[in-house]
Design a protein that fits this description.
With about 375 residues, the protein is α/β, with parallel strands linked by helices. It has helices at about 15-30, 50-60, 65-70, 85-95, 110-125, 140-150, 185-200, 310, 320-335, 345-365; strands at about 5-10, 35-45, 60-65, 80, 100-105, 130, 155-165, 205-215, 220, 225-230, 235-240, 245-250, 260-270, 270-275, 280-285, 300, 370. The protein is built from ten helices and 17 strands. It is globular. The chain binds nicotinamide-adenine-dinucleotide. Nicotinamide-adenine-dinucleotide binds near residues 45, 50, 82 and 134.
Length: about 375
């Protein structure tokens, strides 16, 4: 068999997501028949020392404290951005200009206009892109979508989506890039996931009525003072879908006790589905066709019937983990780069999520229903 071409990766950032991406690049070749050999070429971070330490830990051959030098390196094929949101645009545009494929964490950019510029640049350059909406890679979401499309739930009537965590619930926690008045806030940070999941499952959202609230109005600035917070702690919206369903989403990063409530409930004329990311190897299905006296939610447990679960583990019920979702995302993205499949969630799709976020924020300010097109 001929050797596979080598794809050389340049990773920017080594925090929470940098490590998750490094896990994904390490495990994807051991699970999937990828179209490329992966070479972990260079890791860039905010200083030479931080980058060198992370490169050693994550298995990258080289490191640099200057991401621009890495992006300009002609050897690198794919630039992977896991830096704070405000840096995504500059980094991605530089990488696209250098002819690299770009994998970028969500939210794609602080503003929809920035995201559009990034998507336009990538399409003009002919490079392949991916935004990190890893929850969409859960085989149980594919199972849910298949059940919706096959009519198992009948006509879809209503949807409830939520993404709630408590990592900002402590009012003494310092102001971070997530509080940046341009593009920060709970709706952008985690509501982006809730919106991506809602459209993945039910199709386009056509109208929104938003309510975005700042509850913790100032935070320590890290230098002994305080800083006013303008971004939302709780972002909610009523939704109307093109398929006629009515719904809601909530993004909440001060939901004390919640660690990863990326959940949905879908109600149709013949059945319903419940899902919780805190137990993301399960899907709960209610069928109105079950005999009277025996109706109730049944638990569908992830297993080899739910591709690509079986590539990770032959035994059902043994469960996938968060880092596995990144490996799936990477495998699908590499298939797109090789021309074996369309981009699963490229920059144009990332722009769509930014547009939804901005429309909900504007709707909240104007207290009015707004079209999302
Ligand atoms: P983090 O603070 O843990 O990591 C950020 C990294 O970027 C750090 O290594 C930091 O040193 C580096 N960095 C900062 N400035 C830099 C610069 N100028 N040059 C090079 N590197 C620089 O943050 P995080 O939680 O990993 O979030 C990073 C991105 O990932 C954000 O866009 C966030 O929204 C996204 N994210 C996505 C998910 C998901 O599930 N897909 C989860 C968490 C975060």
């Amino acid at each position: 068999m001929p050797d596979k071409p080598v794809l050389k990766i340049g990773l920017i950032g080594s925090g929470f997501m940098g490590k998750t991406h490094a896990f994904g690049f390490a495990s994807a070749p051991r699970v999937f028949d990828l179209p490329y050999e992966i070479e972990l070429h260079t890791l860039a971070d905010r200083s030479d020392a931080v980058a060198a330490e992370a490169a050693r830990a994550f298995g990258f051959a080289r490191s640099t404290g200057d991401w621009r030098a890495m992006v300009a390196d002609p050897e690198i094929d794919l630039v992977d951005i896991t830096a704070p949101n405000a840096l995504h645009k500059e980094m991605a545009l530089a990488a696209i200009a250098a002819g690299k494929h770009v994998y970028c964490e969500k939210p794609l950019a602080p503003l929809a206009g920035d995201a559009r510029e990034m998507a336009d640049a990538a399409e003009a350059a002919g490079v392949k892109t991916q935004v990190g909406f890893n929850y969409l890679c859960n085989p149980m979401l594919a199972q849910a979508r298949e059940m919706i499309r096959s009519g198992a739930l009948g006509e879809i009537r209503s949807y409830r989506g939520v993404h709630a965590e408590d990592y900002m619930a402590d009012a003494s926690a310092p102001f971070t890039f997530r509080n940046d008045p341009v593009g920060g806030g709970a709706l952008a940070d985690i509501g982006s996931h809730a919106l991506a999941t809602a459209e993945y499952l039910l199709g386009p959202i056509t109208k929104v009525l938003g309510d975005c609230a700042t509850v913790i109005t100032s935070r320590p600035d890290g230098a002994g003072g305080t800083k006013t917070v303008e971004t939302d702690d709780v972002g909610r919206a009523f939704l109307r879908f093109e398929n006629g369903a009515a719904g809601t989403i909530e993004a909440n990063w001060i939901a004390m006790g919640r660690k990863m409530q990326h959940d949905f409930e879908i109600y149709g004329s013949k059945g319903a589905l419940l899902f919780s990311q805190e137990r993301f190897n399960e899907l709960h299905f209610y069928s109105a066709a079950d005999p009277a006296g025996q109706r109730g939610f049944r638990r569908i447990e992830a297993g080899p019937d739910h591709a690509p679960y079986g590539l990770f583990c032959v035994a059902p019920g043994h469960q996938l983990g968060f880092n596995d979702l990144k490996a799936i995302e990477i495998a699908r993205y590499l298939d797109a780069i090789a021309g074996r499949a369309p981009e699963p969630f490229g920059f144009r799709a990332g722009e769509r999520i930014q547009t939804l976020i901005e429309t909900i924020q504007r709707s909240s300010r104007e207290t009015a229903w707004l079209e999302t097109a």
